[in-house]
Amino acid sequence: MDRTERDFGVLENSLVRETFMSGNVTEVLAGFAASLQYDDLPGHTRDHCKNVLLDTLACAVAGHRGEETEQLAALASGLAQSSESSVIGGDRLSLAGATILNGYLVTAVTMCDIHRSTLTHVTPEVIPPALAIAERDGLSGRDLLVAIAAGCEVTTRVGIGVDYPAMRAKGWHGPGVLGPFGAAAAVGRLRGFDTETMAKAFGLAGSQAAGTFAAWGTPTVKFHQCRGALSGLMAALLAEQKFLATREFLTAKDGGLYNVYANGGRPEAVTADLGKRWELEQIALRLWPSASSIQGMNTAMFDLIEQHKIDPAKVGDFDTKDALARIGKNFEGIPRQADPPSVDMTEPQQKAERRANLDDVLARAPRVDIAYKAVPGNTADFYALQVLSGILQGGQSSRLYQKLVKEKEMVTGVFGNMDEKRGVGALYTSSTLRPGIKTEDVETLIYAETDRLKKEPIADWELQKAKNGTRRALINNFQSSLSRALTLGQYTVYYGEPNLINTRLEKVAAVTKEDVQRVANKYLVDTNRTVVVTMPKAKAKATTATMGQ
Questions:
Q1: Model-level pTM?
Q2: Which of the four pLDDT bands, split at 50, 70 and 90, describes residue 539?
């Protein structure tokens, strides 16, 4: 039988065959990774893995010029003092240190791979721990290639099973969530894991799956990747010590990856044609050190440079009047397209409080969510409500935190924000209750604090503190060029006012104590309020049918 075309379900390994038939997706994938052999890989798949490896090494060499590489090198050297593992293009560090630094080097200059359907960089998580273990154990190039194939296929298969759009909608960032599974698979394959040990490694990898788009626009998204490499390495080495872990992490009903990070996922996609169709071949290699979305533009730009023999030394050396004249000559004749029809963003006035009670089997504690319908962004009332939100729930010195968490000890946390929309936004408050606390008691205290805002003028220091918090959050968001570009785009599309990026702080600074009290009385009223109370729901106990009864 041609091993490159065989069905995974008829592998000779009986344990693999049993797990495949059991329907436990985690164990099926673990059996695949544990039993993968060099001869199982079609020629084109081997070639792709070789190209991926070469590209990864080249990216890592370039990564020594990354802006934050020295900071990661300092972290890596501080993890341990041994020197058994090579740094790509550098010195030697500990197994953990080399893994995390090599992972960062691969992604440091934004040049590494991308898995198309999950927009996930795979190589920073999979290749570094595989190289480190193969080097430490003196394994062959074939062993390394099989491990890379196992790791890349596991990462991408877990990715297509999670239902990426649903995961992205929840704010999760692929490399730190999916990458640890592939890293564990690569290390486990090199260490000769059986299916059971590999499945436990996946359970331990999943327990470290993390990283959200809150980090977008900062180097932290690259840290997600190198940390994913280290997480997978630790998961595999701990599983090798027979550490007890779940073997059904992907689809576990309570806390499984697909149920928590998405909406149940598409687990059937994980095993569909497993061993016959290679998802790792959807890992693309980038030509240019930039975001995947502008690779085509970069290629076109360099084609223009080559075709027109543009001298880079002369770029930017032009006469403004001449440039404007040329722009007008080439573009003014293009007729303006009709504006798209405007979207009516208004909403009917809310005339009574709305309430909903939810029972959630995944909830660990009761939660109270309160929302007051408010105003669109970039309005005087919006900025006043932003400052009000800071006073009410902006950090540990806020009124609600001090009252509910510190003084009364009724909740474990309280947070919220004034949502910015083109249409009607809302002021949100969420609180998670301590055991034995009644939701109505928490609501009563929250409403008491909002009533105090309506009746009592706030102190000057409290107003300034809230403004400072709003100012700090805004400035932090402008730290990267990407964030500034996104903000400019948002202000242009939302309000037709790109210069808002320069004037927004002035609008926050103009908010007065009277403004805060006015919007509190105008919007924080019963008839403008929606309340959702979520309660933990006990799981139904399984019943066993007895023959003859």
A1: 0.58
A2: low
